[in-house]
Amino acid sequence: MNISIFGSGYVGLVQAAIFADVGHRVICMDIDAARVDRLRDGDVPFFEPGLSQLIRNGIASGLLSFTTDAKEAVQASDYLFICVGTPAGSDGSADMSHVLQVATSIARYMTSRKVVITKSTVPVGTADKVRQHIVDALESQGRSIPIEVASNPEFLKEGSAVADCQSPDRIIIGTESGKVLEELRRMYQAFNRNHEKIMHMDPRSAEMTKLAANAMLATKISFMNEMATIAEAVNADIELVRRGMGADPRIGYHFIYPGCGYGGSCFPKDVRALKHLAEQHGHRANILTSVHDTNQRQKNKLAERVMARLGSDLSGKTIAVWGLSFKPNTDDMREAPSRYLLEGIWSYGGKVQAFDPQAMGACREIYGERDDLVLCEHKEDALKGADALVICTEWKAFWSPDFELLKRELSQPVIFDGRNLYNPAQMEELGIEYYGIGRGRSLVAAA
Q: How many Cα atoms are found within 13 Å in the side-chain-facing hemisphere of 382?
């Protein structure tokens, strides 16, 4: 099938590579000429495991190409995916300008029937809005061409997006058209062989499903972080509580790890978007408000604990930071807890020595060159002479460090663990002052 994908971010680029990998002919269109040039050379502008090789394979096979020409992308394909960004405003509303710009281009250049598929995370009602936008534009040109718009939300996780796309747990197709449903069923045939994964619903329900799913996962994380705060107050260990909870099959172990808050491009934005949607229709989304507020408090907790232990004046003090990305296996620092930590340390006069396996380039782009930020080549380098170590991201490289080396390199053996990687009893035996999330009363005294 001939497919064009508008947008070469996480969603668009992964989907383009996966479609080409199973034999579809895919054009990926982006208005960023520099990015398109990089992609034509097989150079992926962000880190996602396995994606670079798929892109190079697709280019070599001739099934995947990149362009800045919207006319070429519209006219070469029957199926047009909208995968552009929908950034959130301060009130949580989604900026739909990029989506509607693509819709305008489609109406301008289409000369035959098209099926437009919205894959970006969008407000409920977007498919209807996009269809009406295209129809109105065609009418203003005095043209009448068949147009169908469907919703096909993505459920990719950064860090495992390729695997998620190759083996989806569900494929949601939101359309009122039986013909479009069968066309998209054929498109996804290679991903639907093991068992039936396609779920058919109306477009509004499909759009709502994506928002609701992310809000539910964010709710589980914020709930556990609130339980961790209570565990500290009553001198309980949240890690033991978590295991006891997760053993209940009605709860399960997924997304019940306490930590220093969730980040990334999806959860924060989608929680705000769903809250805004509810308020637009006269409903107070009290749970979503609490989820968001709890997460914001959690992101500040590490900086607060550093200052509670080392003092509110951090002048002359250096903090080692392991992990900058919002989660492992990505270089994405959007809404990352590490940003709240870094900015908190700097605001109180401290200096940061940081290491991350992938996100140092992103950190440089965000903060530039600063006297109070040193990005280190190795995790051990970040420890040298630092007054404490703070862990923000649970990269595997941090799970089993050389603790004796750590003690020698730090000016004092203090760890603030935002991801509960280590055992408090073992840290005590090693003579390391250790503060996790929800691990007992010592944290209450510190914070």
A: 26
